[in-house]
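Quick one:
INPUT:
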């Protein structure tokens, strides 16, 4: 998932890269994925484990409705998998981002309100523990409101490298891998990112609201 930039890109070559802990890029094995799926199920989430990104893409196509608006949260996982384009550009789905294009760009509050409580949100998280806790971070927090409660339905696509043993490791992954990777992506465009808000999801209150698709490959960060 993308951590949104703090400013609009501008040429600023003096921005320095941050160290990246590449150990967090290693995909979890089948047993870890199985434990994570079991942990998620026990916490009120629907969990699927698929082998490949292509499998995840096909499954998400089955999970998403065609007759209700879908909001694609900022996410490198969605970009790299092709799901962002599938929802927002193909015409197969009702894209909330496409509908937001008709909102006055100066009316930031209107855009935030529409994105905060969509019918369906599709996105990712930065870490999943083996006992089923999810962690998502953001600069602005725009995708966190629908994740937490605003969206009626949530679908997260999560690469195997994001599965970690426990919450402490999940938070360390965010700060030493996900954030530095996002910072570098924006640094190369002359901007900076930062961690503005952190959401820890420990259990889901509403049955069948949230679905997690665990992918047996590395995707996103």
């Amino acid at each position: 998932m993308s951590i949104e930039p703090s400013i609009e890109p501008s040429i600023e070559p003096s921005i320095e890269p941050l160290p990246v802990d590449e150990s967090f890029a290693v995909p979890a094995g089948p047993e870890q994925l199985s434990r994570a799926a079991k942990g998620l199920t026990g916490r009120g989430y629907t969990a699927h484990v698929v082998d490949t990104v292509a499998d995840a893409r096909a499954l998400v196509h089955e999970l998403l409705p065609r007759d209700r608006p879908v909001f694609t949260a900022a996410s490198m996982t969605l970009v790299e998998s092709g799901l962002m384009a599938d929802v927002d550009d193909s015409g197969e789905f009702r894209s909330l981002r496409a509908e937001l294009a008709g909102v006055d760009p100066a009316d930031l509050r209107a855009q935030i309100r529409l994105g905060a409580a969509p019918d369906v949100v599709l996105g990712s998280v930065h870490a999943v523990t083996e006992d089923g806790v999810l962690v998502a971070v953001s600069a602005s927090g725009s995708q966190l409101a629908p994740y937490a409660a605003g969206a009626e339905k949530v679908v997260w696509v999560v690469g195997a490298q994001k599965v970690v043993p426990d919450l402490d490791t999940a938070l360390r992954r965010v700060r030493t891998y996900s954030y530095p990777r996002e910072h570098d992506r924006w640094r190369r465009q002359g901007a900076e990112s930062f961690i503005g808000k952190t959401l820890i999801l420990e259990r889901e209150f509403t049955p069948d609201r949230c679905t997690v698709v665990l992918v047996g490959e590395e995707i996103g960060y």
